[in-house]
Amino acid sequence: MTQANHAMPPDAEEDVHILNTIERWVDRDLKPIVKEYDHEDRYPDGVVEQMKELGLFGAVVSPDYGGLGLSAATYAKIVMSISSVWMSITGIINSHLMLALAIQKFGTSQQRSKWLPRLATGEIRGGLALTEPDAGTDLQGIRMTAKRDGDHYVINGTKTWITNGAEGSCFALLVKTNPDAQPRYNGMSLFIAPKLDGFTVGRKLKKLGYKAIDTAELNFDNYRLPADHLIGGVEGQGFFQATGGLELGRINVASRGVGIAEGALKLALEYAQVRKTFGKPICEHQAIQLKLGEMATRARAARLLTLDAAQTFDRGERCDMEAGMAKYFASEAALENSIEGMRIHGAYGYSREFDIERLYRDAPLTCIGEGTNEMQRIIISKQLVKRNPVI
Ligand SMILES: Cc1cc2nc3c(=O)[nH]c(=O)nc-3n(C[C@H](O)[C@H](O)[C@H](O)COP(=O)(O)OP(=O)(O)OC[C@H]3O[C@@H](n4cnc5c(N)ncnc54)[C@H](O)[C@@H]3O)c2cc1C
Fold first, then answer.
1. At residue 204, does pLDDT exceed 60?
2. Which of 11-20, 164-173, 195-204, 311-320 shows the lowest per-residue confidence on average (mean pLDDT)?
3. Is domain 3-121 in CATH 3.40.50.720, yes or no?
4. pLDDT tens across 121-148, in order?
5. So where are the chain's domains?
6. d(CA 353, CA 346)
7. DSSP 3-state percent helix, strand, coil across the chain (nearest 5)
8. Gap between the Cα atoms of 26 and 203, Å rounded
9. Which residues form the catalytic set?
10. How many Å lie between the centroid of ligand 1 and the Cα of residue 266?
11. What is the mean pLDDT of residues 141-163?
12. Cα torsion 167, 172, 174, 177: sign
């Protein structure tokens, strides 16, 4: 935690225990290994086992199914804390929880009892498979099809950029059950898709940052799935089921942005007090003071905006605008703070020996994932008009 955060509103009682535990874990177990795993782009199996023990694979899953049942606000603070040191590994749980929440929110009672307890413990791990080579932002443009064949569906097509694609074993898979439907979203369905015959992992994608965790292509070739894997049991609901989790998804990405923005501030603040030029620590030069002042303000604003969105979500209110604002602002704050942090480090910021370079490589993803920042501003604007009609 940085000094700037000490003046934040106190954490709710439910937060205190879990947040302390997470902060101790980050300090004791993550900090010493992050550089090695990131530079070697090595999957952190041991960290995954620790996350299972911490209950993180069931963080927002209801206790009825073995989860921790945490509020969005508490979960956001956990993601902030981890991301201030190692953003990548939050993808292992965030994407997994998108799958679990799709089942929890939209699944039949049989689907909830069959899948959620094993997802909550991390026995089954997975993610959300929406994006295709020709369709990311324009999700309704996907081409993957599922054709009914007796009591099965036969699925063909390719997904790409799927987090946990190689290491996970089960995905929420968005397909077209009626490719000719108009509007296009009426022909879309969401399936629970475990790795069975016909489902293979293609290439793992090489990335600028977000190292150590896998992002992969998934290929489906006459993949036969029992019909009871259709989430909710009714065709044509997939678009709303897939995007229904995006508010929380955006709060999660905003939390990652907050973590990076705060992490960069912390590193810069430490470095600026020990590095001396012209006979004094650089934090005493006005140019550096201006940077630190801006970085601290951005990090704090990003945190407050993100917690505001999470609390709105927790009250059960519509929060697409709030989540969009948080995601947009916090991810841009991550990008700006990481580059300013790097500048404050001078040449050492450009070295792989210092942690700031990792934050700089990780930050841009937060501007792309869960809806690009271009789309966030459009969503915010549309909601503004809708909520403030003059005619
Ligand atoms: C590391 C990583 C992990 C990912 N993990 C997952 C995952 O687990 N599951 C998953 O399904 N996807 C995942 N994605 C994909 C991600 O969600 C998409 O990349 C994202 O939705 C953008 O889609 P796109 O890349 O196809 O860009 P495009 O849709 O091709 O957009 C290109 C550019 O055009 C802009 N643009 C597009 N349409 C409009 C418009 N109407 N108005 C204004 N601007 C527009 C965009 O903002 C962007 O700047 C991941 C991506 C990355 C990089």
1. yes
2. 11-20
3. no
4. 999 999 999 999 999 999 999 999 999 9
5. 3-121, 126-242, 244-387
6. 13
7. 60, 15, 25
8. 31
9. 370
10. 30
11. 98
12. positive
Nearest to 59 by CA among 20, 142, 116, 139: 116
Predicted pLDDT at 245: 82
For 227-285, how does the pLDDT look when each residue is reduced to its tens digit (9 = 90+)? 999 999 999 999 999 988 889 999 999 999 999 999 999 999 999 999 999 999 999 99
Binding-site residues, ligand 1, Cβ < 6 A: 95, 127-131, 136-138, 161-163, 207, 210, 215, 365, 368-369, 372, 374-375
The pTM (predicted TM-score) of the whole model is: 0.95
CATH topology of domain 244-387: Butyryl-CoA Dehydrogenase, subunit A; domain 3 (1.20.140)
Nearest CA to ligand 1 atom 52: 161
CATH superfamily of 126-242: Butyryl-CoA Dehydrogenase, subunit A, domain 2 (2.40.110.10)
Phi-psi category of residue 3: left, alpha or beta, with phi > 0 → left and psi -120 to 50 → alpha = alpha
3-state class of 317 per DSSP? coil
Confidence at residue 142, expressed as pLDDT on a 0 to 100 scale: 98
Give the number of the atom of ligand 1 that is nearest the alpha carbon of residue 174.
Answer: 11
Residue of 90, 97, 137 with the most ligand 1 atoms within 8 Å of its CB, for mutation: 137
